[in-house]
Design goal:
Blueprint lengths: L1 E5 L5 H11 L5 E5 L5 H5 L2 E4 L8 H11 L2 E6 L2 H9 L1 H5 L4 E2 L4 H8 L1 H10 L7 E2 L2 H9 L7 E5 L9 E3 L2 H16 L15 E5 L4 E9 L5 E13 L2 E8 L2 H14 L3 E10 L2 E8 L6 H6 L4 H10 L15 E3 L15
Length: 342
């Protein structure tokens, strides 16, 4: 049974985690839009594929899976997860599992406005969030919200396009500039209706930030939640973090897993201020802070492989050691080949 990681990019660590998990029972394949990436360099087999937005993308990924006995597909960027989740049935008909929430829930994760509404519906707090400037202006006038505020793309990724606003003049200027930059950008690929307002405005909540891995089985049942306190960020990704145990946050992970009913792992960002937890976003895939869980003893790749093979999960794979501090470093990965770089 082989595993395919799509949009692998520089995630060489995930390729290596799955190699160890398979332990000779199969190969780790990687797909990417270009060959020269760290993830592709360490994969057992490499496939250069069209961009996720190309109409042939799904068929090419499916052909790779069928031709190479792939049993599990792991999408590694958000739009990739949206596109592949929409076609999960095609893969299932060929005996292939795509690790993602349902198409509806994957789209919800990608739409920060819908995520805000969904979270409130299931009883979770979120920052005050607006998708309509007139409503925001009224609430500012009524003093129901105040500066500072955060502008961000409604379908954004990481910290791309985020603006921090301290007054109304900045709000009007930055809103117009962000709207212009998003109009013809790739962000429109996240929405079925590109005429929708592409920007949301939120209150800025300053507190302690946490990253959660929320892991379900393939029946959509919650299994475990790993919690990391984020100590440093770099380009929107966790750079230094500490494993913690927290009953409140674990309960939030359980609640999200129960209502999301996804398969495998998702990434959740939360900020806690004055003892109150606020959901910031959900990424429907392995997130950039999973390696801190893995370094502290978790092994979700092994759990996923055994789940696909119908074998028991070692409960040690669902445990982490508390207070382990993790820090990302730099590792150079090389690729040999005379004509590789043409």
């Amino acid at each position: 049974m082989n595993v395919l990681l799509t949009c692998v990019g520089r995630r060489n660590y995930l390729v290596e985690y799955f190699k160890t998990a398979l332990s000779g029972r199969g190969k780790v394949l990687a797909a990417n839009t270009y060959l020269e990436s760290a993830g592709m360099a360490v994969a057992d087999k490499k496939f250069v594929v069209p961009p996720v937005t190309d109409e042939s993308y799904v068929s090419e990924i499916l052909d790779i899976c069928v031709g190479n006995k792939v049993g599990l597909v792991i999408p590694l960027i958000d739009l990739d997860a949206v596109v592949l989740s929409k076609e999960k049935k095609q893969f299932e008909e060929n005996g292939i599992i795509v690790m993602s929430p349902s198409y509806q829930n994957t789209k919800m994760c990608m739409d920060k406005w819908l995520t805000h509404q969904w979270a409130n519906k299931i009883g979770l707090n979120t920052p005050k969030t607006y998708c309509d400037l007139s409503e925001l202006y009224k609430e500012l006038e009524d003093e129901k919200i105040q500066f500072p505020l955060v502008l961000k793309p409604r379908w954004g990724i990481g910290s791309i396009g985020i603006h921090y606003i301290n007054n109304q003049n900045d709000l009007e200027e930055e809103y117009g500039q962000l709207e212009e930059s998003l109009r013809d950008s790739y962000y429109s690929n996240f929405s079925d209706n590109v005429s929708q307002n592409p920007i949301i405005i939120q209150e800025e909540i300053k507190g302690i930030e946490y990253g959660l891995d929320v892991f379900n089985n393939f029946e959509g049942e919650f299994l475990v939640c790993f919690i990391k306190e984020k100590l440093d960020m770099r380009a929107g990704e966790t750079d230094r973090a500490k494993i913690v145990k927290d009953k409140m946050l674990h309960g939030i992970g359980d609640r999200i897993g129960h209502f999301m009913q996804h398969s495998g792992n998702i990434d959740v960002d939360i900020v806690v201020r004055d003892g109150v937890a606020y959901l910031l976003e959900i990424n429907p895939r392995f997130g950039g802070h999973y390696p801190f869980s893995h370094a502290a003893g978790a092994d979700l790749p092994s759990a996923l492989v055994n789940m696909v093979l119908g074998q028991a999960i070692d409960q040690d794979w669902l445990q982490v050691q508390e207070n382990v501090l993790g820090m990302k470093g730099i590792r150079i990965v090389t690729m040999a080949g005379g004509d590789t770089w043409k």
